[in-house]
Design brief:
With 507 residues, the protein is α+β, with helices and mostly antiparallel strands. The chain has helices at 3-14, 19-32, 35-45, 58-64, 76-88, 94-107, 111-122, 131-142, 146-156, 159-168, 171-175, 196-203, 241-248, 273-278, 310-320, 334-346, 429-441, 498-502; strands at residues 189-192, 206-211, 215-222, 225-230, 254-263, 290-300, 303-304, 328-331, 351-356, 366-373, 377-388, 397-406, 416-423, 443-446, 450-453, 458-463, 465-468, 476-479, 482-486. It has three domains: 3-175, DNA ligase i, domain 1, CATH 1.10.3260.10; 189-373, D-amino Acid Aminotransferase, Chain A, domain 1 (2-Layer Sandwich); 377-506, OB fold (Dihydrolipoamide Acetyltransferase, E2P).
Amino acid sequence: MLLDDLVTTAATVSSTRSRLAKVDALAHLLRRLDAADIAPAVGFLVGKARQGRVGVGWRGISGATGEPAAEPTLTIAEFDALFDRLAATTGTGSDAERTRVLRDLFSRATAGEQDFIGRVLLGDVRTGALEGVLMDAVAAASDRAGDVVRRAAMLSGDLGETARLALTGTAEELAAVGLVVGRPVLPMLAASAPTPTDALGITAEASVEYKLDGARIQVHRSGDDVRIFTRTLADVTHRLPEVVDVVRAMPVRDVILDGETLSLDEDGAPRPFQETMSRFGADAARETKLHPWFFDVLHVDGRDLLEEPLSARIAELERIAPAHRIPGEVTADPEVAERVSRDALAAGQEGVVVKAIGSSYAAGRRGSSWVKVKPVHTYDLVVLAGEWGSGRRREWLSNIHLGALDPDGEFGEPGGYVMVGKTFKGLTDALLRWQTDRFQEIEVRRTANTVWVAPVTVVEIAIDGVQRSTRYPGGIALRFARVKHYRDDKRPEDADTIQALRTLLRE
């Protein structure tokens, strides 16, 4: 199929706020795709090529863009092959070769295709065709049940391959997609509440557990083979040998665990989050020892536990990993929930997560079965731009523009990000240097004082609340926002929503 068909569909999806219209347009495209084009096309629509990021930034794209072609001739397969070539181009002379490859492709692309190619390379596809809409489109195009498509996508962690299977395989093959030890699944997510009492009002009887100030991990063991994945499903096994040792010592053969890992000081209190995350970097040093704690188990020795109640999963976790289970208590009493929260804060942790005791594990979804409570308002937002500083910060991008996710397009483009404020507070010199380099790598345009970036960077922001404001389209502005830390372990689509922030107006 021609790339132009994909670009045209993306433009159609972007131009409407109607979810049904988006689904119809995407389903029409999916039905016409060749089997080999399905997975790449789905990746391009959500701005995530199957090869991942290939190291091409705004400058590289600007240097390669020339006169557009008059007529569309590029195919989806040729665009996919470009990513293969860019990913394989390394070493001496790689910059020149990348430029040559990009120029060749751009010279064959129409103006609309050039714009789309550049946005995919930067991860800045803003069509509103996020995973939820595409799952509905896959279901419609393949005539499969929506819940079966969603389950397969969540358990495989690969929407592109799920679409290919739904469109080219049988209903039985799609329904058979399940947990596979060694293949990561999208993690279950939590909603928010202001107090443990409020959270317990949502869940009823629940396991009230410490919310650690650590990094989410998912650990798979098959025999002696242990693999560790981040929240974004990146494999970090080789960087966390101490976690591997802990899981190998458990009395099981096969297991999938969900939990957190963090660094502790000499007194057992959590070290700063940045010290934990430093172990996940490519040049990680081993001086910082990480300790794993687990709060859920999804599979044990041939038995899938996803559909079993949390009470059964806790019992299994207590049996196989009692020394590494996150502290908590099962209760329906608000006073007990409040006490556990105070204990967690006294131990230096962030707060608690209140989990309905009868709930199943909803991979990849944020529902009301899990509710997090943090006494300091912290939200995961997406960086939209950075402004050059003044004085001693004049060489750095300092004041960052912050956006909240707008999943349904209530205040703008569906699946886009609504600006809710700016901040330059909480930034160390090291963070200023890092974000100045990083933002210019993902730059999409600039003005005299501002560098606009692809919305791919998640930052955790502490605020004192929000206030009504006509300055921003969401009708609110952050109060006293400051940076806690950047969250490399989170995807931009995991950011908090504008609707969640607006609930603070009612507190």
